[in-house]
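Entry 14. Ran structure prediction on the chain below.
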Amino acid sequence: LAVTGAPRFDVYPQAGQSPASIETRAALCVRLGIPCSERLILHVESAAHPYLFPNVHYAFRDTRQNLEILLAAMRQLRGFHLLIRLRDNADPYAALYQDLVARSGLGNVSFLPQLPLEELLPHPDFTVVSYSGVGVEALYYECPVIVVDLTGYHRIIPIVEYGAGVLANCSEDVVGFIRRYDTSPAVRDGLRAGRVRLLQDYVAERDGLASRRVVELLGHLMAHGPAATRAAIARGRWAGTAAAGSADTLAGVRAIG
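Output, structure tokens:
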């Protein structure tokens, strides 16, 4: 058993480091064409995995309900702008999102281009997820996380259970939490403590070196592992893991192969 950590997290601020932004929030707002004076709420579409939603009908129903809660909250939040990042404009959920936003008539909701998450996560005042690992990534930037999910599948990633984020079952929950967060130091302190606990327990080896450890482990397995393991690495079965990390991971693994 080897603990490498997750390469996908290497691009985020590590323990003891200050968050580094690729550009300022003002520059991002100008690039996206939204008012720089508005506070930002980021929502990242959650993929409906087959093992969670064996019935596509229920996947669309639950996705619709979650988004309707968020849009209803935006009607009540003055001075806020909702940024929605779709995973892929070609997937079936993109049309659902776009249709609901168009029907809402809201002027404080925008769709994002396919920007890397590390360019987006430093900027929002709040991040909204349903059952997505992006909630954990937002915690790297000390961004408060709101989980809007009526299915219960958010428990797969225990952000709410750790007290690192809050669960919202209706638009009033979303609005109420934002107002409490803005006015209550106790709420902010509680989330901060939950965030520290979750990252310590849930994200192993949070030092930015997971990609290097993956390369070293694969090199060790190529040199000393069973024949089947060496053959799998040589055939490129490592790609799914390595692709989530840095360019150094891919270069190192290719060198091993």
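The longest strand covers residues 39-44. Will compare against last week's run tomorrow.
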